[in-house]
Every structure is written in C-alpha cells, then in structure tokens.
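Morning!

This is the sequence you dropped in the shared folder:
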Amino acid sequence: MKMFFSVRQAFQRSLLLAACACCLAAAPAHAERLKDLASIQGVRENQLLGYGLVVGLDGSGDQTTQTPFTVQSVMSMLQQMGVSLPPASSLQLKNVAAVMVTTSLPAFAQPGQTLDVTVSSMGNAKSLRGGTLLMTPLKGADGQIYGIAQGNLVVGGAGAAANGSKAQVNHLSVGRISNGATVERAVPTSLGQADAVFVELKETDFSTAARVVEAVNRVFGANTAAAQDGRVIRVRAPADNSQRVAFLGALESINLTPAQTYAKVILNARTGSVVMNQAVTLESCAVSHGNLSIVINTENTASQPAPMSNGQTVVTQNSQIDIRKEPGQVMMLKGGASLAEVVKALNAIGATPQDLLAILQAMKAAGSLRAELEII
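The structure's back. Tokens below.
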C-alpha cells in the first residue's frame, strides 16, 4: 500500500510539472501543441453508410422508368409494413428518391448520442428540398448497424430569376440533417497497450519525431518516450484509466517547435496559382520556352578579413535572374535566386499557366528546382 501511494504521488508530481511547463513557460511564437501535430493511436473515427428513401418531394423525385431500384425499395418497405401490392402493379412515384446516407462515428461515441448526416441522391431526382428521410440503418465496414438516421432534410442553394431565366446556385441533390442519426452501438476504443500509449505524427518526419521525444522526456522525465520510427512514438503511461486520461491531457498540451518540412511547390494548372510552403531557391539554369527565356547565374563571392584582424572568411552567394520575352522585353532580378521572384516576374510579363507548368517542370527535371513539385 505504501508503494502504491508513492507511485501515485510521483505520477501526480509529473502531472503538476507538465501543467507548470505548459502554463508558465513562455513558449516561442512558432511553437505548436503536440495535439496539433500528432494523434493518439486507436483514437479515430469510423465511417458509416446507409441506403434509404426520401419522401415528400414536390414532384422532383426519381423517374421510376429509369431508376427501377427506387420502385423495388418502396415495394419492399410497404411489404414489411403489411401492405401487399398486386404483382403486375406499376408504381409511378414522383415524390420519392433513393439516397445514400453517410456520416462519421467519432471515437468514444456512446448509444443515444446524435450525429449529423449527409443525404445524397443516387438516382435522377431533380431536388431533395422539402423531403423527409425515412428510418435508415447506418452500417460500418463490418456490416454491423451502428446508428439509425431519420429526419427532415435541409438543402442549401439560392435561386434567382431575371427576365424569364432562372439560375440555381449549389447542388439540390445533397442535403444534411443536423442530429439526424442516433448511435445504437459503441465501438470499443483502447488507449494504448499495457503501460504505454503510442503517439502517431500526422506526417512522417524523423526530425519532428526526435523533437517530440525530447519534449516529452523533458516534461515527464527521462526514458518516458522513445521513437519507434519516423511516425510512431511510444510513451509510458499510467495503467489506471482515470490517471491515463489526465496524463494524455497533459501530454497533448506540450508545446514544441516542429522541424522544417521538405520544400514543396504546388501548381494549379488551370488558374496558374503557385503555392510554396517555404522559401524555395533555385540553382543555376537556363530555360527556353517559346518566346520566353530564363537564365539564372549563381556566383560565390569570398570576403577576406583584414591582415592580423583575427577575422574569418565569409562566402556569400550572389544570384542574377534574367527573364526575357521577345521582342526585347527584359526583366533583371538580383539577389538570391528565389522561385517566388521568378514566378512573380513571369506573371508580370504575361506568362500563361501552361507556361508556368512547362517551365517549372523543366527546372525540376534539370535539377535546378530542389523541391517536390505537385500539379493539381
């Protein structure tokens, strides 16, 4: 019993140290919480899916001649309710639409809780506005029912009419039901194994993983955390559930500065938008594209200290960017060879998105652009 209290007191002291470190220490402006960089292994959402019927539409439902599954679903529903239809009956339904219902079951959700659901038409219904979703079972990937959805749909969209013409904004074949689903079954969620929990970084980065281990050990003591690889960190945690929850709360509140990610350039080929996650520099290269030409020269200049001054030799990198567009339009850029300056200059002389795409791909292939290039 005495040993139990000593262990418990040590854990409470570690939580107190964590709280003091998170609240009193002046974290730098660029520091981020661990909960923004990583998640606890096993704490996740589960997707749910269901097939149902929306009724009460104002003549904007499925055309039954082209969507026979809607008629079959209505007949099956009526039979379950004790309504028998003649075998040769042909239903002409204009106020019914077959839909798919989707939602996400959050971690630790318990029976009785409500969820928002999205209802999407799977036939040729013109609009779901004003419809009511009938009771729809929501199943997980294992085929088990985890929720029941039902309610009135809210469909977004603004309509406008002018000079006899109509304009519709947004889709009318998708709607939402706030708190439209009720959880019927909980998904067991485990917080770690035995005496440890596992923290998973949202992006694999060995430098950030090492910094997480250093920050956790600094707050909770040496050998508390150890990196399994560039994404998973094993953290020792109390075995008691209540103490483990408090420990995880303090763990997620730790502030640390993540490592700088790899350079990445994202180009939208349709609009010509270029997004860079950090300062991307270019090496020496020469690109010729149609009537555009780009020449980037990089030179190293050494600055020698005065004799007997005990100074050091400083090497600076001077770059000059020459962008030309025939006939005779020239733009000279001096300083560091920055991709941002090149893109800005190309836009100034009227380069199209296709020009930017071709030029950046050529720079990447030549090895001048030392960053990952993603085209969307």
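Headline: The chain has three domains: 46-79+92-156+168-183, 190-261, 264-305+313-375.

More detail when I'm at my desk.
O.
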